[in-house]
Design goal:
Number of helices: 18
Structural class: alpha+beta
Helix content: 55-70%
Number of strands: 5
Largest sheet: 5 strands, mixed
Order of helices and strands: HHHHHEHEHEHHEEHHHHHHHHH
Radius of gyration: 22 Å
């Protein structure tokens, strides 16, 4: 049996998706002893505090005022954050364009406005911008001139080709006037580091993907199947809400290799959120159970997310050949030097990092 705090989150999502009623939620809350601090913490973990507050604020006299105040304070601060970030992002994109860099903002506020119809309704932290790979060096120069610190700067400056081959974005950050950390991620590829199928923005969005035009629901649906599904395997309830809201605007034509990831979210959303979308093919039972456990259970403090996701991906592959491919991908990833290795020590030649990597991994496991 699910704990009442988890059930309240699921019912809030259902009310938001209109697959259940507010009266059903009221009836459930009235018959339970609820830890509202835990409801808030779970909402934060699942990145759905604005959605939960949107629903709970309508239940007058049912939800304690002090619980609503927690959500209200966060949503008020988040709205200021969102509008502030929009102005900063618009300014950054304009500065990049002045230097000949074609940049396209996506996800974050853009996605919230289009899909949730309110930039304050979907939690986000980083500002995501698409750029071309051949303009990465120019973006680095501009952002550093603007006072932003580059993540893995030593790695990029020492081995730029290796950096671009094995990462999908360049990341920058600095403190804003309110004291919060302002982070930008400039993507030149969709998530792909350990995905079985590799994708490019042009394949998902067409050749004019960076022109500044509005993306369609179908284009965003494919992007989020890659981002939420193929890359992260739907790690929180927000990712299921994203997919359900996008799917409602369909139907869409999908690349065959993404069909399994669509079936996966459909089965979870049908079970958890009552969303009327049936999987068109079989979903690996082991993968499904692992993802349901990850969504509904409290994460262990000793949990290794890298190994957890590796195991999930391994179970998702149905053939021995596909499982072998995944295993080899992860072994190569573990043995290949990365930005963390380069940032830890300076060596005169890159190949030397291959000799130090096993020692670092062993040290990390202790």
């Amino acid at each position: 049996m699910r704990q009442p705090e988890v059930t309240i989150l699921l019912l809030c999502c259902r009310v938001y998706l209109q697959t259940s009623s507010a009266s059903t939620l009221c009836t459930y809350i009235s018959g339970q002893s609820v830890d509202w601090q835990r409801v808030y913490k779970l909402s934060a973990r699942h990145r759905i505090r604005p959605v939960v507050f949107h629903v709970l604020s309508r239940l007058h006299g049912i939800v304690p005022a002090e619980a609503l105040e927690l959500f209200k304070a966060y949503c008020r601060e988040f709205s200021v954050f969102a509008f502030d970030r929009k102005m900063v992002t618009d300014d950054i994109v304009a500065r990049l364009q002045q230097h000949g860099v074609t940049a396209r903002f996506y996800k974050g506020m853009d996605f919230s406005q289009m899909v949730y119809h309110d930039i304050g309704m979907r939690e986000f932290t980083d500002m995501d911008i698409i750029i071309r790979e051949d303009q990465v060096a120019t973006v680095v120069s501009i952002m550093q001139a603007e006072g932003y610190e580059m993540h893995l700067e030593q790695y990029f400056s020492s081995y730029p080709d290796h950096f671009k081959d094995h990462t999908k974005e360049v990341v920058f950050g600095k403190r804003c006037t309110r004291g919060k950390w302002l982070s930008f991620e400039f993507h030149y590829r969709p998530p792909e580091t350990l995905m079985t199928m590799q994708h490019q923005f042009e394949e998902l969005l067409g050749r004019d993907y960076i022109s500044g035009r509005d993306y369609t629901y179908e284009e965003y649906y494919k992007l989020m199947l890659v981002n939420n599904g193929a890359s992260d395997f739907y790690p929180h309830l927000r990712s299921l809400l994203d997919m359900a809201l996008l799917y409602s605007q369909g139907p869409y034509n999908l690349p065959p290799e993404l069909q399994g990831f669509e079936d996966l979210w459909k089965q979870m959303a049908s079970n958890l959120l009552g969303f009327p979308a049936a999987a068109t093919g079989p979903v690996p039972e082991k993968t499904y159970q692992l993802l349901m456990k990850r969504l509904l259970d409290e994460p262990s403090r000793t949990e290794n997310k890298f190994l957890q996701l590796a195991f999930i991906r391994f179970t998702f592959m149905t053939s021995v050949k596909a499982k072998y491919t995944v295993l080899m991908q992860y072994l190569r990833f573990l043995l290949r030097p990365n930005g963390e290795d380069v940032m830890m020590m300076r060596l005169p030649y890159f190949f030397l990092y291959y000799f130090t990597k096993p020692f670092r991994l062993l040290k990390k496991l202790r």
